[in-house]
Design brief:
Helix 10 links the parallel strand 6 and strand 7. This protein has 18 helices and twelve strands. The strands form two sheets. The protein has a seven-stranded mixed beta sheet, sandwiched between helices. The protein has a five-stranded mixed beta sheet with strand order 1-2-4-3-5. Helix 13 packs parallel to helix 14. The longest helix is centred in the C-terminal third of the chain and has 25 residues. By secondary structure, it is an alpha/beta fold. The protein binds NADP nicotinamide-adenine-dinucleotide phosphate. The site of NADP nicotinamide-adenine-dinucleotide phosphate has 23 residues, from helix 10.
């Protein structure tokens, strides 16, 4: 790891390494938070005495189970699934499910750990958790996806509940998968417990603006960072990595706020379209046809497809990593800064490596870490839970307004916390400390549990 830890925190980190061997993404996520907590222990020595940090680093519960399912030809497959219920000091465990072949315990733990602080930052009553499976949904038929989801829920249901643990989507888990998962939960429990899952369809308990929320929220946060520097998104050139749920709606909101998104990508290549990415085409390819992004050039001959292209080499004013963890390294960060990039906001979780973060911070550009910048998704999930609890359904405009207010608040809280701890403009420190303090105070109040 690149930054040295405070002497009180180094032994805690060594213990995390020792207890969680081989889980490099989890180590990275813990280190990034511990790097900023030194001043907190000076101001709040009781948190050291009560071993709050050690307790936060150990999940309350980790569930690992087998998911057997049959493909369309009758062949049996076995996947492994996880649900890590990390921290419930502020509310029921809340965090998405990820379906991707790279999933293993270390990925779910990094995501669950980040989720604790992100959820605290929203100011809403939600704890932190995360789940997923090494199942690869690519190339599977709808029936295969359904059988997999039903088999997964046949075990998972016993650990969930609107007051216990409330999953949502993430990479590889969108509206279709949530439908199958929720349907099986309803069938097994014989309860229409809407608040047990978020990201549901609008006709069966979902919230308007939830699909858009993470991408929109990331752009609202970017706008706030620019405003704090006397600037705005108007007229800015933007690149967005990924072309999934977060990326698509980040592009939509960036366009609405007067910026021009000129590049996006998937795991095989990138599209550069200097005239501006055409969102209708992108949505059709990704949300309806479920094809590779290379298909974009069939509709726009003036766009360029670059197989395995590095999206961070495309000159831009604003970069929004919206694909996956560690997709932007130190070299990429240097390239962005040298090309004049003034703001980076993370729609994805932990997309920038520790080396990349140092480059952005040294260059003093506006850098919004995922915990803060992409918290709009889970915040709107909590709004979905509120609507479910009151059997209400809000309008799109009202829900979007609530989302925007939450993002403005998160920005303000991160900014002010960073300033209070002598690091004005450092959103990493601001987000970590602000989120940590909310959780730590609640844990402290509840005793040694
Ligand atoms: P998604 O709809 O499945 O889209 C993921 C996108 O990222 C796809 O374009 C995918 O390309 C690309 N991608 C995935 N793995 C990749 C890899 N290893 N290398 C390169 N590209 C890769 O997922 P999503 O919901 O947008 O999530 C994207 C990120 O946002 C994740 O980090 C997630 O944790 C985070 N996030 C999501 C939400 C939410 O509400 N959905 C909330 C907060 C944070 P392919 O199709 O080629 O794989």
């Amino acid at each position: 790891m690149t930054v040295k830890l405070d002497e009180k925190l180094e032994p805690i980190f060594q213990d995390v390494l020792h207890r969680n061997p081989g889980e490099s993404e989890f180590h990275q996520a813990v280190h990034e938070v511990l790097e900023t907590l030194g001043p907190v222990l000076v101001k709040y020595p009781e948190f050291a005495d009560k071993k709050i940090i050690q307790r936060i680093c150990e999940p309350e519960r980790q569930i690992i189970f087998r998911v057997p399912w049959q493909d369309d030809s009758g062949e049996i497959h076995i996947n492994r699934a996880f649900r890590v219920e990390f921290n419930s000091a502020l509310g029921p465990y809340k965090g998405g499910m990820r379906f991707h072949p790279s999933v293993y315990l270390g990925i779910i733990k990094f995501l669950g750990f980040e989720q604790i602080f992100k959820n605290a930052l929203t100011g809403l009553p939600i704890g932190g958790g995360k789940g997923g499976s090494d199942f690869d949904p690519k190339g599977k038929s709808d029936d295969e996806i359904m059988r997999f989801c039903q088999s997964m829920m046949t075990e998972l249901y016993r650990h969930l509940g609107e007051y216990t643990d409330v999953p949502a989507g993430d990479i590889g888990v969108g509206g279709r998968e949530i439908g199958y998962l929720f349907g099986q939960y309803k069938r097994i429990t014989n309860r229409y417990e809407s608040g047990v899952f978020t990201g549901k369809g609008l006709d069966w308990g979902g919230s308007r603006a939830r699909t858009e929320a993470t991408g929109y929220g990331t752009v609202f946060f970017t706008h706030e960072m620019l405003k704090a520097r006397g600037d705005s998104l108007e007229g800015k050139t933007v690149v967005v990595s990924g072309s999934g749920n977060v990326a698509i709606y980040a592009i939509e909101k960036a366009h609405e706020l007067g910026a021009k998104v000129i590049a996006c990508s998937d795991s095989q290549g990138m599209i550069v379209h200097e005239r501006g990415i055409d969102l209708q085409t992108l949505k059709r390819i990704k949300e309806v046809e479920r094809r590779r992004i290379s298909a974009y050039t069939e509709y726009h001959k003036d766009a360029k497809y670059v197989e395995d292209g590095n999206i961070w080499s495309v000159p831009c004013d604003v970069a929004l990593p919206c694909a996956t963890q560690n997709e932007l390294n130190g070299k990429d960060a240097k390239m962005l800064v040298e090309n004049g990039c003034v703001a980076v906001a993370e729609g994805a979780n932990m997309p920038t490596t520790p080396e990349g973060i140092i480059v952005f911070q040294d260059a003093k550009i506006a850098y919004g870490p995922g915990k803060a910048a992409n918290a709009g998704g889970v915040a709107t999930s909590a709004l979905e839970m509120q609507q479910n609890a009151s059997r209400d359904s809000w309008t799109f405009d009202y829900t979007q307004k609530r989302l925007e207010e939450i993002m403005i608040d998160i920005h303000k809280n991160c900014y002010e916390t960073a300033a209070e701890f002598g690091a004005e403009g450092n959103y990493v420190l601001g987000a970590n400390i602000n989120g940590f303090l909310r959780v730590a105070k609640a844990m402290n109040a509840m005793g040694v549990i």
